[in-house]
Amino acid sequence: MRRKTRVARRARSIARPLAGVIGLGATLGMLAAPTSVAADRYAPQASVVTAWESDRSTNRSLPSPHDEPAEIAGFFAATPPAELRRLVRTHPEIVGALDGAPIGARYAANRRLSEESAPASVETEAAIRDHELLLFDPRERGRIAVVLGDMDTAEHITVLVPGSDVDLARFAEAESPLRKPMGKATALHAELTAAHPTKQTAVIAWLGYQTPEGLGLDAISGSLARQGGAELADFVDGLRVQLPGRQISLICHSYGAVVCGQAALVTSAVDDLVLLAAPGVRVDSVDELHTRARVWAGRADEDWITHIPGWRIGDLGHGPDPTAADFGARILPTEDVTAHDDYFAPGTDSLAAVAEVVVGSHIGPQAESPAAGAAQHRETNR
């Protein structure tokens, strides 16, 4: 009874500001905002871009940071190792964030950037110290992508996409690690290692977009999701061209699921799309995502996100619950999830089921459902 009272209290605390924000959005004319993927993208500093574009040391034009990942990969495929090392040393801000550039080159560039940058927070610095980075941008609220595992050998690659109230300084938390992307990624990687020791896996905690703060307009509109979806699509396209043949999964939590929905509209690089605690994904069904990926969804009854209304008017609201029967997603078990961030809690069926999706247990002649795999995992570990 006490827990139900807390959930109801939390729901009321969300509903009141949400109603006010919706009214404000209507007043400001937000209802007619665009619903396609945004054109506004992150860009390096102008001086950094100028230095890159004016570099003639390779005797050929360097690719634009806005080129497609496949074009960028083609450029680097014809770049001698010594020349590549020089580009990393001279232009780390460009190479480190360049989707389609070689994985090792991005590691080297971002290692240099992180070492030269003041720590965003003690907890983030401690959490990422021993890991490679596929993205590091300390400007403003910051962006980062941390790799757990070996990308060179991984057959199954997971990109974990977080929701609201996350930035470089709040990327990790020691006291309640599952509240932050690094804690979720660490829990998933530990589950993969323990439950599937023969599988080669890597997990990327990706923070490549500006997340919403609190429950303001940004949280209920699509602007940040469109921008983030475009960034995420390029990121996974870059992984695909550098690491062909790997299974790539997006594991998307809360507002991160909205971002993943926008990415799914424009990339074909994803094999499995997992939507956890989603407030909606700005479409009414899996078919409207136009994705070749298998789409999975899980949302716990005791998660406060269930109290978010499942509608969309113009650019406000994110649409229906992806776990609804007529949405068409494959459902993951969440019965033992009791809070918004507990889908990644060790020992839960939800975490075990996500790991089953990541390693492809549902594919091939010996396939089984993630729910069945999670149940078997639970029995084995009793």
UniProtKB/TrEMBL annotation:
It comes from Actinoalloteichus hymeniacidonis. This is Alpha/beta hydrolase. Keywords: Hydrolase. Gene3D superfamilies: alpha/beta hydrolase. Residues 137-309 form the DUF1023 domain. One of its GO terms (molecular function) is hydrolase activity.
